Amino acid sequence: MIRNSILVAAVVLALTGAISSRTMAQKQGVLVIDGGTLIDGTGAAPVPNSVIVIEDGKIASLGPRTSVRIPEGARVIDARGKFLVPGLIDGHVHYRSWMGELLLNHGITTVFDLGDDTDWILGVRQAERDGKVQMPRIFVAGLAINRPGGNFAPSYLSDAGAPANTKIDPSRNGPDWARAAAKALIARGVDQIKVTSDNLTAEEI
Prior knowledge:
Layout: H1 2-5, H2 10-15, H3 21-28, E1 31-34, E2 37-38, E3 50-55, E4 58-64, E5 75-78, E6 83-84, E7 88-93, H4 100-105, E8 108-113, H5 118-129, E9 137-140, H6 175-188
Parallel strand pairs: 1-5, 2-6, 7-8, 8-9
Antiparallel strand pairs: 1-3, 3-4
């Protein structure tokens, strides 16, 4: 279904000053994008002169102008001459505080962070969930599971980018250690687990 597959039109982000539709709905009530050409990303034919109705941060209805009712009192954005496409997903970022509006302005509405200080990135995710910052929806991994000297994403660590250490670290060794590290991250509430394979064994991974 188009209604379920489309996330948010990228043009909405540009026209509303890079504020997500969820935040806009919370502050402004019902939001309507009127008159644009809708390309839903499913392979269906473009829909000219379309209407998208957003309620409570979610798309409530969409389709040709002749078949969608615009609720009374809704905030209407004139999208004539624009193209509406689903929000883009960046599947691999290392998020920084300056990225939020930049990503939104390029139509990216969801990101997956695959390596950052766990405390910091969990705080960023909470701020996003609470609507305190203008940024894409974010899913986080925290720090990757590996040993010193491996392919470690956060560049502020002293051993980042160094060749993998072939010497086994007794404190980080074996499947039980790897399992405990994963469980600790899961307990913190991360959305995904990242491991780096350059200096972990197959059993640990």
